[in-house]
């Protein structure tokens, strides 16, 4: 899972007519992911704390900005489109507020898209071979069929043992 997150987040580039932002490395990645099979249903648990280091170059500016994007709530409790981030820029400059606005809107959408791919891949990869047939599916017999040794009530007046009428 850690490698898949690195593949999806590191070396990604956001670029438009005004700026180019490169995700250079994962500054921190902590957490875990697991899949469980409960009553024939797959349950996925994951919780990650991730920080992404970036560089940003604004067109017609000599300054190159560096900073970090912190993914705050990457867990199974949230969908990819609910992910929130906090952005930090190390050296302030004339384009700092422009960059913060971009990081909190358009770059956030790129991160959400990549995290969405991770969630899909996690469920696809870990679900293979994990769903096993339930006991009733293995036996392939209805559990409500009466056996011959059970007492069966035929009407309200008569109580007989099955097979000894």
UniProtKB/TrEMBL annotation:
Domain Activator of Hsp90 ATPase AHSA1-like N-terminal: 1-128
Coiled coil spans: none
CC terms in the record's Gene Ontology section: cytosol
GO molecular function, a single term: ATPase activator activity
Region of interest: Disordered: 137-165
PANTHER family for the chain: HEAT SHOCK PROTEIN 90 HSP90 CO-CHAPERONE AHA-1, LD43819P
Family the UniProt entry places it in: Belongs to the AHA1 family.
Protein's UniProt name: Activator of Hsp90 ATPase AHSA1-like N-terminal domain-containing protein
Species for this entry: Meloidogyne javanica
Taxonomic lineage of the native organism: Eukaryota, Metazoa, Ecdysozoa, Nematoda, Chromadorea
């Amino acid at each position: 899972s850690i490698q898949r997150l690195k593949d999806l987040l590191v070396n990604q580039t956001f670029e438009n007519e005004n700026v180019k932002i490169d995700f250079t490395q994962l500054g921190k990645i902590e957490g875990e992911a697991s899949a469980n099979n409960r009553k024939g249903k797959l349950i996925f648990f994951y919780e990650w704390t991730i920080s992404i280091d970036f560089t940003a170059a604004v067109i017609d500016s000599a300054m190159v900005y560096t900073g970090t994007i912190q993914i705050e709530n990457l867990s199974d409790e949230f969908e990819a489109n609910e992910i929130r981030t906090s952005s930090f820029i190390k050296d302030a400059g004339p384009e700092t507020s422009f960059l913060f606005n971009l990081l909190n809107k358009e770059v956030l959408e790129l991160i959400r898209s990549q995290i969405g791919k991770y969630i899909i891949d996690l469920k696809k990869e870990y679900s293979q071979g994990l769903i096993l047939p339930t006991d009733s599916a293995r036996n392939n017999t209805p559990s409500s069929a009466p056996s011959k040794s059970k007492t069966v009530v035929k009407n309200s007046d008569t109580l007989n043992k099955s097979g000894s009428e």
